[in-house]
Amino acid sequence: MIFREVEDRDLVLQARTGDVEAYNRLVSRWEKRVYNYLLKLVADPDDALDLSQDVFLKAYQSLRRLEDPARFSAWLFRIAHNEAYSLLRRKKPETEVEDSPPPARPASDMLPVETSIAVASALRRLSPDQREAVVLKIYHGFKFDEIAEILDCPASTVKSRVYTALDALKQTLAPIQRTGGTARKNLH
Amino acid sequence: MSCSNIDLKGYFLAEIPPAERRAVERHLAACEACRQELERLELTRTALLSVREEPVPQRIAFVSDKVLEPSWWQRFWQSAPRLGFASAAMLSVAILVHAFTRPAPVPPPALDRAEIRQVVDQQVAARLDAAVSQALAAAEQRHREETARLLAAAEQRFELQRRADMVTIQENFEYLLKRVNVLQVASVYREGEP
């Protein structure tokens, strides 16, 4: 990682003393991951961008209330989670319409773009709780206890959601990845 | 240990302690079914991670940006002239306090009073000049330091942004290269079909 010469904790401590540049570095470091997390939750690039901006502003305003600066990332994602669900609650009638996913394609030799579509479709089939738990675990690498902090629920609940989601995703994605990989090997 | 007693997903997600990991590894060495299940989990993760992260369409505004500037009084309080202002205010207060709290003077002869006033005026003027010069020097010094700090910070930010851009460009290039390779191979493969 090229931006790890200074730890988040140090930047948070500097930002708390009024060092705005330290906070700007935190923004640069986390904006892409926060944006992508929000994008997977709200599924709208404009909303995800607006929410990202709000998240970083709120985090700055309440930076002094962060008890453990070393847990900045989990705390930041907690704010992002709250912001996203606040928006989803306001837009509930619209989002409910999107809950019927398209039918799954049969496993076949897929190009990367098609795999992306298959992944997006498989993720949409999960419940929102399972999807968010998988996103935080697989894409962002948080531990169960950190995800529990972000989602404000017991770690055992997080574990259950991730395990159930993995079982569902495995049914759709493992055959695709296997046949795709085999077909690609045959091509070479 | 039987298959139902091992936490294969916990092992796969690195969420179990080292001792339990070793037990799972021993079980995997002897159990073909669990090895296949682990392979399916790995394939699932590979598929999930093959989806590229989207770039942020627009830079997230920094807290130092214009739209997030502090209010005018915050800016004034954080600005260089505040030292000069504070020094002048303190001097004025000191003069006023001294004027109201000094003991009532014995009326001197008329000639002495004029001389004393002249001396006092000279001393007050000299002290004011010194205080103002000192405040100005401090303000200029602070201004110079602030400018240097901002320049250094801007350079640092540009450098970070440049490095981030380079990483993105490299990722995009590698992705395009892979796409071209895949298309070329697919084209060759299809041409070879009967």
Describe the structure.
The complex is a heterodimer of chains A (188) and B (194). Chain A is mainly α and 188 residues long. Chain A has helices at residues 8-16, 20-42, 45-61, 72-90, 92-97, 112-125, 128-139, 144-151, 155-187. Chain A has nine helices and no strands. The model of chain A is unreliable at 97-109 and 182-188 (pLDDT under 50). Chain B has a domain at 3-49. Chain B is built from six helices and no strands. Chain B starts with 7 loop residues before the first helix and ends with a helix. In chain B, 6% of the residues are buried.
Strand content of chain B: under 5%
What Rg of chain A, in angstroms, do the CA atoms define?
Answer: 19 Å
CA-to-CA gap between the ends of chain A? 32 Å
Broad structural category of chain B: mainly alpha
Number of strands of chain B: 0
CATH superfamily of the largest domain in chain A: RNA polymerase sigma factor, region 2, helix turn helix motif
In N-to-C order, the SSE pattern of chain A is: HHHHHHHHH
Give the biggest sheet of chain B: none
Which structural class matches the secondary elements of chain A? mainly alpha
Number of helices of chain B: 6
Sum up the overall morphology of chain B in one term.
Answer: elongated
**What is the averaged pLDDT score of chain A?**
83
Q: Under the CATH scheme, which class of the largest domain in chain A?
A: Mainly Alpha
Order of helices and strands of chain B: HHHHHH
The overall strand count of chain A is 0
The number of helical elements of chain A comes to 9
Quote the CATH topology of the largest domain in chain A: Rna Polymerase Sigma Factor, Chain: A
Low-confidence segments of chain A: 97-109, 182-188
Global geometry of chain A: globular
